[in-house]
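Morning F.,

Quick status update on the modeling queue. The single chain you submitted on Monday has been processed. Sequence for confirmation:
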Amino acid sequence: MSDPLRIGLLGASRIAELAITEASRETGDVRAAVAARDPERARAYAAEHGYEGIRDGYEELIADDTLDLIYIGLPNGLHAEWTVRALDAGRSVLVEKPFASNLLEFDAVASRLESSRGWAWEAFHYADHPAVHRLIEVVRSGEIGELRGIDVHMDMPAPPASDPRWSFDLAGGAMMDLGCYALNGLLLLGEALGEPVELISAEADPYEGDGRVDATVRARLRLGEAPVAMHASMAGPGWDFGLRVTGSLGETYLPNFVKPQEDGRLIVRSTSGVGAEERVERTGGASSYAYQLRRVRDAVRADQRSAALLGRSRRTMALLDAVYAESGMPRRPGRLG
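Structure tokens below.
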């Protein structure tokens, strides 16, 4: 096992509790420092979650050479700006999804990787969990036959109006917060099958508080020759993070592909033979965030720079821009050129 990382949090955020605080308790990595706009908030956060101390502002955190990894869990619109600043300081970064606000901004960040001593990974934690790996194995094995269709949902009840996920200037919207998971998951499956993912059409329901922000998006795509239905909503009646892959001989389904630790079932249904058969596999309750942190730690310690993962992140960002254009919604504004 590689040596534990000393991790600094850029932002005392809710998502950091899952991605770093709880995950590091499983992995043994060190919760070293927190920086927030309000030092008192950082101090309270550090005390509550067992961090060694705080830094007086974001700049001081990214300048700290004792840190091995900076985690950026700020609002979407700040991801690219602070990833660039951390890379320019020679830090390695785990940045929450989405990597940037739009494709131009993504490329501005990626260009910094060529000269930085550090690297940047986008926090699509679901892709590290064995449940997702097992779904891909079932599809590739031919057990459900030829690929016939995919249905993926990323739906949740509406957050309060004050939530930054509703802010256009902070790159909010259903696709940025939720739909990016669906697009990234489709690309991951497409890579495993050697098939491209193509957007066919998209339509959006705007948020009532700001018509520039998408509350719900419905999109049709194609993975190879198979049709894909995608639904992403921050105004749903409940939670639905399901991924269903249908073939000529059956289907396989993850009820919660984004957080399999909350529902680790992989359901495989066969329609061949006499009657339908169903098998439920249990993929374990370990956190996808812990799997992600172990992978990033190994990459940091081995100085591994994955062009493949960066490429998938870029294709995800390109699809996000394309969905907005196709649905008639404005592209999220960026802070970089």
